[in-house]
Amino acid sequence: MTGTGTLFTNIGQLVTPAAGVQRGAAMRDLNVTRDAALLVQDGVIRWAGPRADAPASPDEHDLGGVAVVPGLVDPHTHAVWAGDRLADFEARIAGVPYEEILARGGGIRSSMRATGAASVDDLVTLARPRLQALRHSGATTVEVKSGYGMEFGAESRMLRAIRDLQAEFQLVPTLLIHVPPTEDRAEYVQAVCHDLIPSVAREGLAAAVDVFTEREAFTVNETRAILQAGKANGLHVKIHADQFHAIGGTELACELGALSVDHLEASGPAQIAALAASSTVATLLPGVSLHLGLPAAPGRALIDAGAAVAVGTDLNPGSSPLYSAQMALALAVRLCGLTPAEALCAATVNAAAALGLADRGALVPGQRADFLALHSADWRDLPYTLGASSVRSVFVGGTAL
Ligand code: NIG
Ligand code: FE
Prior knowledge:
This is Imidazolonepropionase. The protein folds into 2 domains: 6-70 and 360-400, Urease, subunit C, domain 1, CATH 2.30.40.10; 73-354, TIM Barrel, CATH 3.20.20. It is 36% helix and 22% strand. It is built from 15 helices and 16 strands. Helix 4 packs across helix 5 (152-165) and helix 9 crosses helix 11 (299-305). It is globular, with a radius of gyration of 21 Å. N-(iminomethyl)-L-glutamic acid binds at residues 78, 107-108, 111, 212, 240, 243, 288, 314, 316-319. N-(iminomethyl)-L-glutamic acid is lined by residues 78, 107-108, 111, 212, 240, 243, 288, 314, 316-319.
């Protein structure tokens, strides 16, 4: 798109948080403009405001009076996997805990066996419809993790699949060090630090390194070594922490200046205070609470303490088969105590900040023109609606997909 750009008109409500990460009470400060217009040029917003004040443009696109919100950013998914976890699902419903299934060699380890046997092309074919579902739900940028490849070759195939899918979707790839091998654990951590991370960084296959820090996964000391290697190789860092037990992952994330710490279902006052005092974003994954029947993360307390809170789907076969970024936002309201306005902020600018991105998530001049036209004239239908999509059309860089 060149020249004067496209003027999107007849926007019943143009709704946006301010650009950049928002903390605490500022998460509720949405800007709502009625009868608005949006000027997009070269994929970027050039002007936004009341229709009556809009600059003239020969190219107008009438949006039919509906509400427009920023494209959602899903900051945490495991959208690339092979195999399924349907037997785990039945076992859990019959009362076997998630951690026990993992300790018995199932769960994440069973996804590793299936994913390790898949080719890059298989993985692309499996992941594409999942990413299409997320996009239809309003996600215009999606983070995707590796982590189902114990062997480094399998990790690399997962990251290559994500790279191939970047031709079709706006994706942010993360190297996830998920669970340790059952033998030679210290050697494995050394090889992750000295072989895997440097080679992934050299090939530009990941923007960040993530570790699952938990009793059944990596210790805080192992996590520290892995994330220090990530930082030494120029990568951002993040942690899956406090999912079942608060063993120190959140405190380590804050100490290392991690972009985000994700899960937090078992976080208490000490972890909330650490996040409130740090620049690390607290990412809620309410699909996990719903699917595993876990307590929800303390979203309300985190915001009241002044933390920056984001929300994601955690789309994965074991703990969150949730294919909708809109539903994640809606669940953050029901399960984590966020207000609708806070949830929109959590799913847009704050989710972008959890990925180190400051150029998207708000509908103000200079930001990427990624936005959603809803079916409704009232934006609150987005956090309100369950089980059907309130998103009518998805625009990426000003182009309808
Ligand atoms: O974010 N908790 C660890 N990792 C994923 C689950 C992956 C799986 O169960 O396959 C999560 O919940
Ligand atoms: Fe996860």
